[in-house]
Amino acid sequence: DQQVKQNSPSLSVQEGRISILNCDYTNSMFDYFLWYKKYPAEGPTFLISISSIKDKNEDGRFTVFLNKSAKHLSLHIVPSQPGDSAVYFCAASGNFGNEKLTFGTGTRLTIIP
Amino acid sequence: NAGVTQTPKFRILKIGQSMTLQCTQDMNHNYMYWYRQDPGMGLKLIYYSVGAGITDKGEVPNGYNVSRSTTEDFPLRLELAAPSQTSVYFCASSSPGTQYFGPGTRLLVL
Q: Does residue B8 surpass a pLDDT of 70?
């Protein structure tokens, strides 16, 4: 039972345009969501997070939107840069991040110069 | 600041061999985790620990064992390696709200 789903295995975006990565979840107990970025042969690195008490969180070029009623979140990257090419994992947790994480299967983002 | 370190980086095992994957963190985190990532899949939790002396099973614990004798170290033991354990293994530690990952150990069981 996949509680966190990333339905797009891959995404290609032109440099300078907006990248939108999507994530859906099924467990109503999740109240904290994170995005991780992973380069080949490296461990995932934390990118940005959002608590269920908010619907938007921004950090530079990265913005995460949370739609609780739809159980959907998205990561927007604007403008997209070649260094953004990586696999992006969505993760969810309960108890506002104090419980173990459940990960999605990842979306491979390729930025086309 | 080293963060989370893992050794070895890569290992080839024969079926039935055993080995220990090492993980050390220097951030004084109580929570530590072991994940495996298979090609095209997300990270699956194997075992986790909420502090020294306390461990618990995750989603895919079969074939693995862990121990947590100190805050810093969280080794993962494979007793009888099987081809199904071919994967990339990541260790992580966490402070509230985020997890910090090591660089991973790539394991091939032939």
A: yes
